[in-house]
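Exam review. A common question shows you a sequence with its structure tokens and asks you to describe the fold in words. Practice with the pair below. Do the first one on your own.
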Amino acid sequence: MAYTLNAAATTVASEEELFDFIFSRVDTLDPDSIAEAAPVLAAYANDPALVARTMARSLRSILDGEPPPFVAPQCYVIARRKHVMIRANVWSPLKQTGALRKNEERAYSYDTAHDHNFHFLTVGYFGSGYRTHIAEIDPAELTGAIGDSARILDSEVTTLPKGKIMLYRAHRDVHRQAPPDELSISLNVLFNNQSQIAKCQYNFVFEQEFGEERARILSYTSASIHSRLSMLAEMAVLVGGDELTPLFADVVDSTLLPPRMRLMCLDGLRDDQDAYRGALERLYADDCAMVRDHASKVLQTLQ
């Protein structure tokens, strides 16, 4: 289950102090180690001028012709060091009706259950916070195919008011957010480890199946780096040519890259049947169930 961490702050920590603590004291692959950064994050969020100051800095950069720091309409980057990012998320009550309301829901990712392919800490900075339904699953139960499902092992409905800190674990904690009662802001610290971001990020639907609560994969999350890399691979295969084709086998064999990206590049080898079959035979024993299952099915058709 996503951790709720008790860490009240009476002092203020700087951005440098937060990054220094993370890079000197935290194993960013270990959720328990990440949780130890909660007191420093609480002190960082205890600065009432933090968001206003960073927004002013962003506006000055935009006026100077720099690109805006937004990664989504309601989400902007405060700072980034190596694989660790600090960002602010704005959460607003829904104001529109009809089709415009649907656009608002999509912009804020409201009412869409999803996981993340990175661990992250989040703290309520301003307002009463969004409401969220959190479910814990075992990612080992998923192969990654659309329609696949995993048992919900535990769940809760909670909020993220000012000062509350939570830790979400990659692939294990699935949450569905609902609009807050008032404008709210949260601060997130994201740990984008390469071994995690190579894995899929999903949208889910919570449902009952034979009296058991399950989370079923509805779609792939389009905004994730996984989906962007997969789109790049799809375009590369469509373009083809002497410069791209030799790279497809390297992508297929790289276990650090997303499974969908690897399988799309596998299609780019079809014109060379020896290379295609050789890649399939290697993937037959791949560590990724999604890749392994695909290779097994295709090899059966080639017999």
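Now try the second one, then compare your answer with the model answer below.
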Amino acid sequence: MNRKMSRNWITKQRWSSFTRQVLNMGRRRQQKTRQVSTGSPIPLYPCEQAPSTLCQHCFVGQALKDSDRGQAMFLADRYVHRYKARQVIFHEGNPVSFIHLLREGVAKLSVISREGVDRVLHLVSSDPVPCLLLDKLALNRPVHSVTCETLSPCTVYSIRKSTFHQLLTQEETLVQHILHLLSEEAEAYLAKFRDEHLRPAKERLIDILLRLADLYGVRDASHPTEPRFALSRQELASLIGVTRETIARLLTELRKSRYIELRENHIVILNKDGLQRLIDIP
């Protein structure tokens, strides 16, 4: 009896220790998420004062090029964060204290579906226009509606939400630029919705591969088009609205036909013209 009670006591102690470890991990994760979302300087994501110049080629620079007051306000409250690939800038549901703009690099925006699956909505790039808003809905919401994760090394500008709102009330050109961006994004989501319901999965896959190659591809003699970053099979499946198994089957078909070459998570396009002909066939 004493031996049984002793075993039960040891089991309870081990379970209590395990529970404390899980709770501590959760607290550390929440603390890290809170620091990232508020733009606080932390070791993994060094924060430093940005240069005292405003690039005239970026989204904000174009909008504020004729306003010295607007430029001064933006520069006075702007910080720069540098992220490595596969680091989260902010999580879905985090409070919005800062507005984040992508100065350099490629990032993905995703949401968690009802089934608990990470669904990729969109890829954001600093090409051709840098300093695009990463979460446009954050302008009018208390929490982030998406999760933003870097796919390549990224430089992100952060400005306090209150300061950005003040800029919007004073600078009409900035509002016009944001409305134009929202219109373009709505058109992109509408086109994606039509593709998912009207085009076969293979055509959608080829189309996204060609677009990724044009936007983010690196060309050399041995590998005609190779992306600058890696996408997992699950992320690629989420982008075109199919299962991971379907993506694996379609990629295998394209590889056997010598249209592409698979290297870990990288997809190298060997015959771009051939892929284009496949989706141009009526």
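Model answer, second protein: The longest helix spans residues 2-38. The mean pLDDT is 77. Full marks require stating both points clearly.
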